[in-house]
Amino acid sequence: MGENIPTVFPASSFNPRADADALHKGMKGFGTDEKALISILCHRTCDQRASINLAYKAGYGKDLESALKSELSGCFEKLMVALCLPIAEFMAREVHHAISGMGTNEDTLIEVLCSGTNQEIREMNAAYQRLYGHPMEKDIKGDTSGEFELLLVSMVQGQRDENQAVDVYEARADAHLLFQAGAAKIGTDESVFHSILASRSWPHLRQVISEYHNMHGHTLERAVKAEFSFNAERGLLTILQCAKNRHEYFAHRLHHAIDGLGTNDRNLIRIIVSRCDVDLNNIKQEYERKFSRSLQADVSGDTSGDYRRALLALLG
């Protein structure tokens, strides 16, 4: 899938104390200098923002998050707060929000857990335990059921094989097992789909998808749609989409967040903040390829004010 290219790069001659002071000055007195906040928080990597956080607390005796919350409001506040948090903590909060209160936001759980790397998920687990005093797995088990619960519990372990080498014969064997577990029989052996899609490496799964189509004349996605339903189906399809092209998956998620009536600002913020240090440039390219217009243009048309300016700064 090529090299990951972010949209936010390390600021040269970085001085966290100077940035902390500039942020404090921007929020001191009457009114807020939103441009100063954007020029700093939207142009520093997550590691640099973490250093600014520490410098701010050391210099002013309070968290940058609480300072931002006392000065800002609306979507701009949510975006600035997201930027001042370590990514793992921000994503742990997103998972908690998805499973707390009335109902469950399965879309968020699928996006975060079924697309994540082992490192992302393990760091999120540690942050969740720190924030809420118990494992993320416990809350997921309490809020989901059936095949969907089993899939998410597997994902939460962060134990996907990380071997980047692909053995075509092993991929072919997995493709055969998946066919035997689904299309070749009455009923479905869900555990086979589950164990292969939840544990094999991303490059291996890409090869399995190709081998399955070559061997059986239809796609593995079609098999999943035929054998599963509802959230378990959507979770497994997300895994397959990320194995084929993670950048395209996130391009579709962003399009879904800003297309049609209204904007899903929570999804828009989560994806842009979590990917700007990783591969947002690639996602932008996929977006333009898929939808024949730039992500910047669509974000600009769907947002306004300082919120728009901050998002566009993060989009590069």
From TrEMBL:
PANTHER family given in the database record: ANNEXIN (PTHR10502), ANNEXIN B11 (PTHR10502:SF102)
Family label: Belongs to the annexin family.
Organism for this UniProt entry: Daphnia pulex (Water flea)
Gene3D superfamilies, A to Z: Annexin
Keyword Transcription: no
SMART domains per the UniProt record, alphabetical: ANX
Molecular function GO terms recorded: calcium ion binding; calcium-dependent phospholipid binding; phosphatidylserine binding
UniProt protein name: Annexin
Statement: the UniProt record of this protein carries the keyword Calcium: yes
Keywords, sorted A to Z: Annexin, Calcium, Calcium/phospholipid-binding, Repeat
Entry-linked Pfam families: Annexin
Superkingdom of the organism of origin: Eukaryota
Domain characteristics, as noted in the entry: A pair of annexin repeats may form one binding site for calcium and phospholipid.
